[in-house]
Amino acid sequence: EMVLTQSPGTLSLSPGERATLSCRASQRVSDNYLAWYQQKPGQAPRLLIFGASTRATGIPDRFSGSGSGRDFTLTISGLEPEDFAVYYCQHYDSSPSLTFGGGTKVEIK
Amino acid sequence: VQLVESGGTLVRPGGSLRLSCAASGFTFTKYWMSWVRQAPGKALEWVANIKQDGIEKYYVDSVRGRFTISRDNAKNSLFLQMSNLRAEDTALYFCARFFRGTVMAFDLWGQGTLVTVSS
Distance of CA A67 to CAs A23, A80, A90, B63, Å? Predict the structure, then answer.
């Protein structure tokens, strides 16, 4: 069973700063089936990144994804006020099963 | 393009409930569909997937045998029949479109419907 561990649990940063969020998988992620979502309070999640590094439609280029194997990173190159939210990683495997990480909250410092 | 869930309410442990999701603005029959839930203050949890034809279905272990996902392609609707409900099923239930191929992610979400299991 796949487990996704996100770190840190909370990231306290100021607008304009760079955010680096980690997602570590308990097993190798095949075909880079790793996605990232943003969720704001009271809202549904929004797909940001799929295939580990491809931005979804309409996602600003300050969001980027990288990684392979077991270690993946979401980077926000310069935080805008609207970027303060909770971020989740998600994996798909062929069983098929889908797994989410525990989330990283990006809060205003 | 939207998904709108309904049917969430307060239900007693051991009870049953049916959630619905109305899809509009896209070709429903082209997509796998899913239910994803989120317990209060907790992370997202995938619950179930259903293929376009309504035959192939998959569930997370914790709901298998208690929940049934189904769809009505003529009415662009997705359902989740929940039975033998437990306190740990309390959550906001999201309907989501699952985009397969190279994406393998949820690219469209509803706003959710709240299920509370309590005596």
Answer: 9, 24, 14, 32
